[in-house]
Amino acid sequence: GALMLSVSSANVYPHSYNYALFLTSFFFVQMMKFAWDNYKLYALGKNELRPLTKNGHIGNMFGGLRGATVIDALDTLYIMELEEEFQEAKKWVEKSFDLNVNGEASLFEVNIRYVGGLLAAYYLTGEEMFKSKALELGEKLLPAFNTPTGIPRGVINLGSGMSWSWGWASAGSSILAEFGTLHLEFLHLTELSGNPVFTEKVMNIRKVLNRIEKPQGLYPNFLSPVTGNWVQHHVSIGGLGDSFYEYLIKSWLMSDKRDAEAKKMYDDALEAIEKHLVKKSAGGLTYIAEWRGGILDHKMGHLACFSGGMIALGAEHAGGEQKQQHMDLAAEITHTCHESYSRSDTKLGPEAFRFDSGTEATATRLSERYYILRPEVVESYLYMWRLTHDPKYRQWGWEVVQALEKHCRVEAGYSGIRDVYTTTPNHDNMQQSFFLAETLKYLYLLFCEDDVLSLEDWVFNTEAHPLPVNHTNFKAKAIEIRACI
Ligand code: DMJ
């Protein structure tokens, strides 16, 4: 409890600060409880809560699977020691989570939320039930890889095994951030099942990527699973590209730094990004632009804001000059993302912000003004805090909490908002499952000590589900988790 914190950090923080920290962590636990209780009350068994109309939302990403919020919330409930709520969630998984379903599922979303959530729940608790469901679900994803190149298609019917590409993705292509965000989970599926097939599938994706030529060393977002060629030269560290880069550096870290190929791919990709996409605005803000066949689009999506944390994580392990250089870059990007929040009326950031015709870190289009409870900015605050201990990151995290309470908390949960530039309520009536998996988890960890899910022993998948690093003993049953407070 509180005592533990004051004793263990007595040398680091003055006593009053400890007490403030204790209250802060308590606050996040209450936020999580509020989000969970309302989901449970109005939407248990559906995928997400609609907090204004007080009902459930199913959506079309999970192909008949239900309980996205339950699976996404499991590890957060567990680490926050919300014991009763964790038991409720576990019971639902045990009794009601049905894997024999039909419908169009996103391979990527099912992997990061369901497989990742179940794996993390298993590693944290040692409960076999989570492991066997993760493996059973993993098996159902395999038919998506039956393509001429082995690059999986984006959509799969979990019942029939039929797979196809997203209708909106150009010319039947697969998306970099989707097929490039399977590696961490699939390695664990092999580890836990003893079946090499999962690892073979993701190693083959890497082989294809290494073989093809990359324009200026950059990775375009669309690839044909039939020919293995790029389909369109759009490059982005935000949506459609983002977590591919994240999984390169994290694959290396998860392998206890043995997977040198992943490290090299990460280093090379980052070098190309630095050279071609990193820019500074007239007002001195560093940002990462998007690239369309050689032409820059001076825009950064909220999704791209995870990159501050990723670059800091990589910098921590870089040598020589690069260490400082990359740490500075990470801090600058995180600063820019903070600016995108602080320049809005709600102190929450827009879906995308621009740096053109006099604009600096603000949205210019009506359609880009929304905030849907996304985690990327607080995710970067957490990594920056853990790696620098600059107290401003905790202050910035606290600003987010105040804004969430003021603008997103409604009677029955938390809701996204349609326009961050107005304080008139304009809720979107959706409590996204990643709010419980990621946003609240990262905020909580920001105010915990560094050894709670330490970056040495765990990597977070792109939905913030912690997976153990190889050296921590993959087969560990319940891995001991130090409490936050
Ligand atoms: C989450 O599902 C994951 O963080 C993913 O990497 C990106 N989109 C959402 C959160 O914004």
UniProtKB/TrEMBL annotation:
Keywords: Calcium, Disulfide bond, Glycosidase, Hydrolase, Membrane, Metal-binding, Signal-anchor, Transmembrane. Pathway: Protein modification; protein glycosylation. It catalyses: N(4)-(alpha-D-Man-(1->2)-alpha-D-Man-(1->2)-alpha-D-Man-(1->3)-[alpha-D-Man-(1->2)-alpha-D-Man-(1->3)-[alpha-D-Man-(1->2)-alpha-D-Man-(1->6)]-alpha-D-Man-(1->6)]-beta-D-Man-(1->4)-beta-D-GlcNAc-(1->4)-beta-D-GlcNAc)-L-asparaginyl-[protein] (N-glucan mannose isomer 9A1,2,3B1,2,3) + 4 H2O = N(4)-(alpha-D-Man-(1->3)-[alpha-D-Man-(1->3)-[alpha-D-Man-(1->6)]-alpha-D-Man-(1->6)]-beta-D-Man-(1->4)-beta-D-GlcNAc-(1->4)-beta-D-GlcNAc)-L-asparaginyl-[protein] (N-glucan mannose isomer 5A1,2) + 4 beta-D-mannose; N(4)-(alpha-D-Man-(1->2)-alpha-D-Man-(1->2)-alpha-D-Man-(1->3)-[alpha-D-Man-(1->3)-[alpha-D-Man-(1->2)-alpha-D-Man-(1->6)]-alpha-D-Man-(1->6)]-beta-D-Man-(1->4)-beta-D-GlcNAc-(1->4)-beta-D-GlcNAc)-L-asparaginyl-[protein] (N-glucan mannose isomer 8A1,2,3B1,3) + 3 H2O = N(4)-(alpha-D-Man-(1->3)-[alpha-D-Man-(1->3)-[alpha-D-Man-(1->6)]-alpha-D-Man-(1->6)]-beta-D-Man-(1->4)-beta-D-GlcNAc-(1->4)-beta-D-GlcNAc)-L-asparaginyl-[protein] (N-glucan mannose isomer 5A1,2) + 3 beta-D-mannose. Its main location: membrane. SUPFAM superfamilies: Seven-hairpin glycosidases. The keyword Lyase does not apply. Its EC number is 3.2.1.-. It is found in: Endomembrane system. GO terms for cellular component: endoplasmic reticulum; extracellular exosome; Golgi membrane. GO terms for molecular function: calcium ion binding; mannosyl-oligosaccharide 1,2-alpha-mannosidase activity. It comes from the Eukaryota. Involved in the maturation of Asn-linked oligosaccharides. Progressively trim alpha-1,2-linked mannose residues from Man(9)GlcNAc(2) to produce Man(5)GlcNAc(2). Belongs to the glycosyl hydrolase 47 family. PANTHER family: MANNOSYL-OLIGOSACCHARIDE 1,2-ALPHA-MANNOSIDASE IC (PTHR11742:SF28), MANNOSYL-OLIGOSACCHARIDE ALPHA-1,2-MANNOSIDASE-RELATED (PTHR11742). This is alpha-1,2-Mannosidase.
